[in-house]
Recover the amino acids of this structure.
């Protein structure tokens, strides 16, 4: 499985960005997908995950502002980010794992481990 993120950049507070993650490789290995981020000096954290049924889960800090979605026909995962804040500044990573059932949503908090990771795309929010 290969995951390639794109769409990062620098925007002002209150702006929007849409991240994309192009996925390739065995579909059954990426039934669970999600976005994670790591800010400088901080640990990596889950942002949003989506299971094979389209069920989603978000971190409290982004709930209501971010939307995760996927287009299976394009093998692409998206993260629409609105009302961006300086604390959203981070490297954003796309990740995938095989189990797309209910356990997938546990990946947000690290209770289910993602197996495949992209190299990340940088998002910088300036005030």
């Amino acid at each position: 499985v290969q995951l390639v993120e794109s769409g990062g950049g620098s925007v002002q507070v209150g702006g929007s960005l849409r991240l994309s993650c192009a996925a390739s490789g065995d579909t059954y290995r990426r039934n669970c997908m999600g976005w994670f981020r790591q800010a400088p000096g901080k640990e990596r954290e889950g942002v949003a995950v989506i299971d094979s049924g389209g069920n989603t889960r978000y971190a409290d800090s982004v709930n209501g502002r971010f939307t995760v979605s996927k287009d299976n026909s394009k093998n692409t995962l998206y993260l629409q980010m609105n009302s961006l804040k300086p604390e959203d500044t981070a490297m954003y990573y796309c990740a995938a794992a095989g189990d797309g059932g209910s356990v997938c949503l546990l990946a947000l908090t690290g209770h289910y481990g993602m197996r495949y990771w992209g190299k990340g795309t940088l998002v910088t929010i300036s005030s």
